[in-house]
Amino acid sequence: MKKIEFNDLGAQYRHLKDDIDKGIAEVLSDCHFISGPQTVELEQELCKYTGRKYCISTSNGTDSLLMPLMAKGIGPGDAVFVPPFTFFATAEVASLLGATPVFCDVEEDTFNMDPKCLEKEVERVVKEGKLKPKAVIAVDLFGQPAAFPEIEPICKKYGLTLIEDAAQGFGGRIQDKKACSFGDFSATSFFPAKALGCYGDGGAVFTDDEEQAALLKSIRVHGKGSFKYENVRIGLNARLDTLQAAILLPKLRAFDAETEHRNWAAQRYSSQLKDKFQVPVVRDGYFSSFGYYTLKAESEEQRTKIMAALEAAGIPSIIYYPKPLHLQKVYEPLGYKEGDMPVSEKLCKTVFSLPMHGYITEDVIDYICKTLRNI
Ligand SMILES: *Cc1c(COP(=O)(O)O)cnc(C)c1O
């Protein structure tokens, strides 16, 4: 068998090569490298896809999370509620603005923010009176939207801005409502390894609020006013390259077929592994884009053994994520200790993700399942 890739971007490129090459060549001959027509077209297509009114393409997923916090004027003394079982950027953006991330543990089966923990933490912060509760960033981990039907009323009740971190969620949905359409803002990433990725860094912010959309567009270009050399607020340089937009357009056209394929692959994995492992749980009425396919081992020792056996068989596997954010060194001053977020801590010790992408084949999945079953 040829080398097994964790995420086979080469297979995708070979599949879409003609359209991607043509798109790149057009940008090179037009020389409109920043905010070119392909960027505008991509934003329109992303609005159509997600059902959101406004899409602001950006330089990466992290800036896409940062910009709504900036638009809302969040800063020192403010609490931003985030899950600890996610990529660092989810909490980092709060800290970048001098606000304080407040961690809320996740659900054991979906890995997403537990609405009950969120409400408990908001009430604790209110009672303590030291920080002002301002925003919630809920993550669509591994492709499944967070529990927005339960999280949205909590945000309404306490007057919190809700931001969907859809960096891994693009393509997921709850009933007919697509990822990137939940909350006041949604942020996604087009980092190459994401389900919809470009060939460099890229991202987008979404909102239905016209005023906020205008604010985000100003923040994207150094807080510009009516023209580029009038500055009315502090902003960023957070634009998406035209080249990346041209690469994303054909990838977006192929995205639904790839998402169907990833769901087929997830089902094929789960049907062969469910009697031996805890396979991913997708809630009733939810649809996961399955950017990642993640299993749980029974213990840290068992996981080490499994991953070594996979490696010996030429199968790549990755731990997303080995350390919960509340226990990261940089957050020591926040005073969290082991045992504070038991579900996230246990997940960090037991999860591992298997190869998953829109072009994975039956024989690869069956070989991986056979290897796992024989451990
Ligand atoms: C990838 C990712 C980000 C950051 O996106 P970048 O484009 O790498 O800045 C934020 N949140 C989550 C959950 C991610 O997976």
TrEMBL record:
List of residues that carry N6-(pyridoxal phosphate)lysine: K194
Any one GO BP annotation for this protein: polysaccharide biosynthetic process
Enzyme class name: transferase
Residues annotated as catalytic: K194 (proton acceptor)
Alphabetical list of InterPro entries matching this protein: DegT/StrS_aminotransferase, PyrdxlP-dep_Trfase, PyrdxlP-dep_Trfase_major, PyrdxlP-dep_Trfase_small
EC number, UniProt record: 2.6.1.98
UniProt entry keywords in alphabetical sequence: Aminotransferase, Pyridoxal phosphate, Transferase
One Pfam family recorded for the sequence: DegT_DnrJ_EryC1
One Gene Ontology term of the molecular function aspect: pyridoxal phosphate binding
Family that this chain belongs to: Belongs to the DegT/DnrJ/EryC1 family.
Name of the protein described by the UniProt record: UDP-2-acetamido-2-deoxy-3-oxo-D-glucuronate aminotransferase
Species of origin: Caproiciproducens galactitolivorans
UniProt gene name: wbpE
